[in-house]
Amino acid sequence: MLLPNGNIEFQKQQLWTAIVQAKQDGLGNEEIIENVREALPSSMVAYAETVLKQIDFRAKLSRSVVEFDLDFLFQVIYESVIAGTSDEEILSICAEHCTLNQYEFVRYALEYIHFNRMPSQWEQNNVYQEMIEIVNISPIESLFKYIESIKNIYLKQIGYEVVQKYLYNLFLSNKQISYFTDLANKSRDNFIKNYCYRTAVLVARVTGNPVDLKLAGDGSIILREPKYLDSDIATNEIVSSNILTMEQAGKLLVDTLEDFNINAKYVDAKNGPTFNRIRVKLGRGVSYKKVEDIGNDLVQQLGEELGLKVAPMVSVVPGGVVFDIPRLDRQFAYFRDYFTFDGEPDIYSVSIPGGVDVDGTYVEIPLYSDNVTHILGGGRTRGGKSQFEKAAILYLVRRYPPSVVRLALSDVKRVTFGKFDGLPHLVAPVARDAESTANLLDYLVEEMELRYQEFECHSSIETIAQYNLRFAPDFVMPRVICLIDECFDLLSDDNYCDRIETALMKLLAKAGGAGIHVLLYTQRPDKNVIDPLIRSNFPAKTAFVTTRPEDSCIILGDDKDKRAVYLLGYGDFLYKTTEVLRLQALYVADDEDPEYFQQLLLEAKNQNDPYTAWQSGLDFDEFVANLYGERNSKDIGKSKATAVTKTKQHKTDFEGSFNFKVQLDEEARNSILNLHQKGYQLDEIVKAVFNLSRQDGRSYKKFRNVVEEFLNSLKGGEEDDI
To answer: Which UniProt keywords apply (predicted)?
Structure first.
C-alpha cells in the first residue's frame, strides 16, 4: 500500500481510496492497519484507524432495519437462554439487528426469562447439589451469597429450602441467639433474614432468654413469637409461610388505599402457590369501581415494599375485595404430586383436573355437572393452556378405562396431542387439520343422535347419567370428551368453517345430556371468528392470561371482566361456572420427566377394563367413507351441510328435490324457539338450525316459511308439527 510522494491531503485521499478497496476485497481491519504501519508514517496510521472507524459506522447505519414480531423475538431469546447462550452474546446480536425499541424489549425480556422461567429437573438437581457442597465445605454465609446471585425464582426457592433445613440443624445444635442474629445481618435477602430472625426467636423462647426482635434488620418486618416451644414442631415454625409479613402487607395496603380516599379495613391474608391474597372490607358507601383498576397505582406506590412488578388482580368475593399479590417465590403444582391412581374410578362422576386454589386446595372440574358440560378456554402463548389440556387427557386415560371414557382430539398445531396417538381411548386418530376435524365433529353429531335414540327405547331415561345409574356397572355408556386445540385456525378455514360451525352448534345444544363434552381452546378468541351462538352455549370457561382486555371479556362471557389480563401465565387461570375461581393448573412436566409421563401412558394402554361398554355401532372409518361417498371430493367442506329431516331411524336426503314435506322434530322446534326468545331474526334462525342462507334459493325459502309458520302457530296456541 505504498503511496507516491505529494501533499498530505492528496495522500489522505489516496489512502481513503485504498482502504475502501481493501475492505471490498475482504481484508480485516487489523490486516489493513498492519499494511499501513509497514508502508507509511505513524501520522498516516492514525488517519487510517479513523477512516476504518468511519467506514464501520457508516456500514452499521446503512444496514436494513427489520421490525421483528415481539412474540417471535421473545421465543428466540427464550430458546437461546435455554441453549446456554450468554446475555452478552444475545445483546450483542440484537444490537446489530434490532431497532432501539426492540433492543430495549430484549433487555427486559432477558430479565423476565431469567426471573420466571421454569428450570429443567436436571438444572434444579444440579443447583441443589452445588448448594449442598457449599454448605459442606464453606460457612453458610457463602450459601447466602450464592442464593443472592441467583435470579430465577424457582432456583432461589431451592436455596431457601436448603437454608431452612440448615438453620433447623443449627437450632438443634444449641447455637446462641447472637449466632442467628449475626447471620441475619450478613444477608441482604429478606427471606433469609426472616428465617434467621425466626430461628433466633425460637432459641430465645426455648432457653428462656429475653430477646427484642420485633423489627427485622431494616425495621420493616415485624416478627411473631411462636406459640409452641417444642423442638419437634420447630421446623414448622421456621418454614411457615410469611403470614405475618402478609398481615403487615395488608395493613400497608389499607393505608395506601386511604391515600387514594378509599376507606377500607384489613380482614385477612392467604398464601397460594402463585400469589398471596389480601382481603379487605371496603367502607360503607365505597364503590368497588374505585378499586377495580387501581392495580397499576399500587405497582408505583408499593412496588418495592410488596415486590410488585405487575399489577395485582382485584376481585370481589363474599365479604370483601381481594388483592392478589404475585409471589416472588412462586411454586408450581406438579401433576404427579396430586394423583396416585389407586383404587377403582368413580364411573358415574367423570372429572378432569382443575388446579390448586389460594388455600392450596385441589379443585377438580366435574364434567358430569350441569354447570360444566362444555368448556370454552383461551389465552396467549405461554399462558398454560397446553399443560392444562395435557393434564386433562393424561388424567382421563389413566383414571378411566376406555369403556368409561373415550376421547376425540383435534390439534391443528400438531405438537400438543400427538404423543397421545395410539391410546385405546381414542374414537379416531388425532385430527390434525380442518378437514379431519370436520369429519370428527360430524361423527360425534351422529353418535349423539344414536344415543338419544337409545334413550327413547327406555322409559324415563333422558340423559347419560340416568342411563348409567340404571344399567352400570354391568353396562356402561362411555362419556366422550372432545378436546379441540386452537379452534381459531379451524373456524378461519374458508373450506370447512361452515361444517365445523354447524356440528359445534348441534353438539353444544344437546350433546352434554348424551355424555359428549366439547372443550374448545384458542389463543385468539376473536369475536368475529367464533360465532356468539357458539360462545354462549359453553356453561364453563377457563381463561388463561390474555394480551388484550377484550380477549378476557370474550372468554369469560362478560364484557366487563378484564381480569385475565392480570394473570401471571404458566398455568395461572380463572375457572368460571356459577362463580369464578383463580387456580394454578397442574404441570405435567412431560419434557422434564419423560419417564413418568411414558409410564402413565403405558399404564393407560394396559389398564384393566372390567366394564362392558354400550356400542352405538357407528364405526368412524366407515362413517367417513360414507360421508365421502355422498360428496364430490372436490367440494367437501365447501358445500353447505345438506338440509335433512329426521325421523326416529331414518334420514331423507332432500338435495335436488323441492317437492318435500318438512317435519320439524323436537330438537329443531326447541332450537327455533330458543333462538326466537333470544331475539334472533328469521334468517338468522334458518342459518343456525338448518345452515341455509338466501344463497340457497328455494331450499332457504321453503325452510324459512316453515319456521315462520311454526312461530305463528305458537302465538295461536298450536304446537303440532307442520
So the answer is: ATP-binding, DNA-binding, Nucleotide-binding
